[in-house]
């Protein structure tokens, strides 16, 4: 796949604090690439450096397919984390203004605006003032403003924050379809389930450093070991003695058994001792959410794995 | 530049669609006109009072009637003079129930004691007693004539004594003397001067909205979205241009409303005096003034979260355009004096003081004008640069005001 954006060795300090310590990744045409990380990890700073809103102390941001100097602003759609719209103007005016700033033809922008407003259940709202919109509606209009000019690269900083599940689904579908049509998408999010469902590749960042970088599947095989959750009262010591169990976590009546990396779930199940009390059992990979929590809280459950790659 | 024009167009469109701005746009000149008319309403009232006709019946025993009538004709007072033979006692009875009527008894008492009894109706023009003071002169002359003075003596006695002041030394040093002689600056200077002053006030005051507008992006949290399409510099310049045009629109609308009213009310050929070569320089100064304040406002505006949370520093900056008013008194007193010169060289007061001085002075001090314009131009470039630096950082600082220390840091960065 064609590479649209390359970020290399990005470093940035605020006062004496280094907030980005050599961030490198790339975004390709037609893929959804997610930047994940806890609050303050440096996600938005990375994005702001890409957008030229801040300038990195070191490192480079390269937009391929762009010959001129600087940032090809008209080819990029950007939805910042801190976002809003002018309050006392009507919806169509602001959409057309933002499209005009991107040098997008106005008649086409108008068509697309109406099309998207309809798609996002805002049909007939083009004439009303922005301040009359609910928060969710406002979010939708902001999202439309970021894609109205058919960007080749779309950068979304926390696109799902503050959205209800229905709207989240709408956004998700639209982002997916944009990617399918060839748009390169870089998004940051906290909503792990959403990211897990839609992203092709991900970049996890903690304290300005890369923790994980790769395709979702790679990451899962690499980091997400299997875990087995057993509901029923059992002796912790007995559980720990089961082969290939790294660690046991008790949660009331259920216990979570974290398994070794190369375990074969089928074989492992066969050798479970008979005396174990099982009301319910399920075995699955550790979710992205858990990896994320783990990293964010510095438990370093997957420390071994992360150290290999970091 | 193209992006700046887009921003400018947007700012203009946004304001022209904004009810608050539109109301202000028309209300300001309409209020001025309204006050003009309210003022003249009171004038009309008083004119009505003074013009209310009073019938004056004169019991004349000294043959003064003709000279009294002549006096009234000369002063155009609305008094109707009639002769009467009525006695003082009957006059009082005759006045009962009548209005705007008076009886005057001119007899020996006027000559000997200088007293003329006047009987008036209860309802009478309140200015009447002042109006009949004009009869003093003819009566006085009869009094003097009766003393047997010659005409020459009469002239001497009836003329007032006046004090004439003659200043010795260089004529030019006595500016007061000068201005008395030239009876103030010519209209070709005053009218364009007032016009340019009005234009400057109008665009500077409209430009104060830049203050609000510069923090608008922050308040509405749209700064990053906008900055993903253009640079902070383009945004800033766009705002400056946009509000300049809005200021001009305000000026044009104001003039369109004020001028017809003024011409009708004051009855004066403004237009003949307005379009003179001086106007070009005046307007140039006015525009420089706008650019300077626009740069300062846009920079400082970007440091605030909201106009209502402006700190002392921001409030102080906002008062800068009013600094000119401090100089108005001293400059009017002495347009070439020390204060006037100081005001000319301080960039913040320079445009206003310069305009005022050029209007007042007969001979323009070209050297001072050129130095002042140079200082102004350099200041504009300097402040634009500083504003650009402050704006660039400030616009992204959501939800808080920047301290002076922080602003200083951004400037040095």
Automatic annotation (TrEMBL), chain A:
InterPro entries for the chain: AAA+_ATPase, ABC_transporter-like_ATP-bd, ABC_transporter_ATP-binding, DrrA1/2-like_C, P-loop_NTPase
Entry similarity comment: Belongs to the ABC transporter superfamily.
Q: Which organism is it from?
A: Oceanobacillus caeni
Which Pfam families does this one have? ABC_tran, DrrA1-3_C
Report the GO molecular function annotations. Answer: ATP binding
- UniProt domain ABC transporter: residue ranges: 5-232
Record-given protein name: ABC transporter ATP-binding protein
Keywords (alphabetical) are: ATP-binding, Nucleotide-binding, Transport
């Amino acid at each position: 796949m064609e590479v649209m954006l390359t970020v290399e060795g990005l470093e940035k300090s605020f006062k004496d604090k280094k907030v980005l310590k050599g961030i490198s990744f790339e975004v390709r045409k037609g893929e959804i690439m997610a930047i994940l990380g806890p609050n303050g990890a440096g996600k938005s700073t990375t994005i702001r450096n890409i957008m030229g809103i801040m300038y990195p102390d070191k490192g480079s941001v390269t937009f391929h397919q762009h010959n001129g100097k600087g940032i090809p602003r008209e080819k990029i759609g950007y939805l910042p984390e801190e976002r809003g719209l002018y309050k006392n103007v009507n919806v169509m005016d602001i959409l057309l203004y933002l499209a005009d700033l991107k040098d997008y033809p106005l008649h086409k922008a108008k068509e697309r605006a109406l099309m998207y407003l309809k798609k996002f259940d805002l049909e007939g709202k083009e004439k009303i003032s922005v301040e009359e919109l609910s928060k969710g509606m406002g979010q939708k209009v902001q999202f439309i403003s970021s894609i109205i000019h058919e960007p080749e690269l779309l950068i979304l900083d926390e696109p799902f924050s503050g959205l209800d599940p229905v709207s989240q689904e709408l956004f998700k579908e639209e982002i997916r379809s944009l990617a399918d049509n060839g748009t390169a998408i870089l998004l940051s999010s906290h909503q792990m389930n959403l990211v897990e469902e839609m992203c092709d590749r991900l970049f996890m960042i903690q304290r300005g450093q890369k923790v994980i970088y790769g395709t979702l599947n790679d990451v899962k095989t690499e980091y997400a070991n299997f875990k087995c959750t057993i509901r029923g009262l059992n002796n912790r010591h007995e559980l720990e003695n089961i082969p290939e169990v790294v660690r046991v976590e008790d949660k009331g009546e259920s216990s979570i058994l974290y398994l070794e990396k190369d375990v074969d779930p089928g074989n492992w199940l066969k050798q479970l001792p008979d005396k174990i009390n099982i009301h319910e059992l399920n075995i699955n990979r550790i979710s992205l959410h858990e990896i994320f929590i783990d990293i964010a809280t510095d438990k370093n459950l997957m420390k071994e794995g992360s150290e290999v790659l970091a | 530049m193209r992006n700046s024009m887009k921003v400018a167009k947007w700012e203009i469109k946004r304001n022209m669609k904004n009810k608050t701005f539109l109301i202000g746009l028309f209300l300001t000149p309409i209020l001025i006109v309204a006050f003009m008319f309210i003022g003249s309403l009171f004038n009309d009232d008083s004119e009505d009072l003074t013009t209310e006709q009073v019938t004056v019946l004169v019991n004349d025993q000294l043959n003064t009637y003709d000279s009294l009538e002549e006096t009234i004709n000369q002063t155009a007072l609305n008094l109707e003079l009639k002769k009467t033979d009525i006695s003082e006692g009957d006059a009082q009875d005759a006045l009962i129930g009548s209005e705007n009527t008076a009886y005057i008894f001119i007899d020996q008492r006027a000559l000997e004691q200088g007293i003329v009894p006047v009987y008036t109706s209860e309802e009478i023009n309140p200015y009447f007693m002042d109006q009949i003071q004009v009869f003093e002169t003819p009566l006085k002359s009869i009094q003097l004539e009766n003393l047997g003075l010659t005409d020459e003596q009469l002239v001497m006695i009836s003329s007032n004594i006046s004090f004439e002041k003659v200043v010795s030394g260089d004529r030019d040093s006595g500016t007061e003397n000068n201005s008395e002689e030239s009876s103030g600056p010519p209209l070709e200077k005053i009218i364009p001067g007032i016009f340019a002053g009005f234009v400057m006030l109008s665009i500077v005051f409209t430009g104060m909205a830049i203050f609000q507008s510069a923090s608008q992006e922050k308040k509405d949290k749209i700064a990053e979205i906008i900055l993903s399409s253009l640079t902070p510099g383009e945004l800033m310049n766009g705002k400056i241009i946009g509000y300049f045009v809005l200021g001009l629109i305000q000026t044009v609308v104001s003039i369109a409303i004020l001028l017809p009213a003024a011409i009708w009310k004051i009855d004066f050929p403004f237009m003949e005096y307005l379009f003179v070569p001086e106007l070009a320089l005046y307007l140039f100064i006015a525009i420089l003034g706008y650019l300077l304040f626009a740069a300062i406002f846009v920079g400082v505006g970007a440091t605030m979260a909201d106009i209502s949370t402006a700190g002392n520093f921001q409030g102080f900056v906002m008062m800068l355009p009013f600094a000119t008013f401090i100089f108005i008194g001293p400059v009017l007193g002495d347009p070439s004096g020390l204060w006037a010169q100081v005001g000319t060289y301080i960039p913040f007061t320079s445009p206003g003081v310069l305009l005022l001085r050029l209007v007042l002075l007969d001979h323009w001090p070209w050297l001072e004008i050129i130095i002042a314009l140079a200082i102004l131009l350099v200041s504009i470039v300097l402040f634009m640069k500083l504003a650009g630096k402050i704006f660039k950082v400030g616009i992204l600082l959501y939800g808080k005001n920047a301290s002076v220390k922080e602003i200083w840091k951004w400037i040095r960065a």
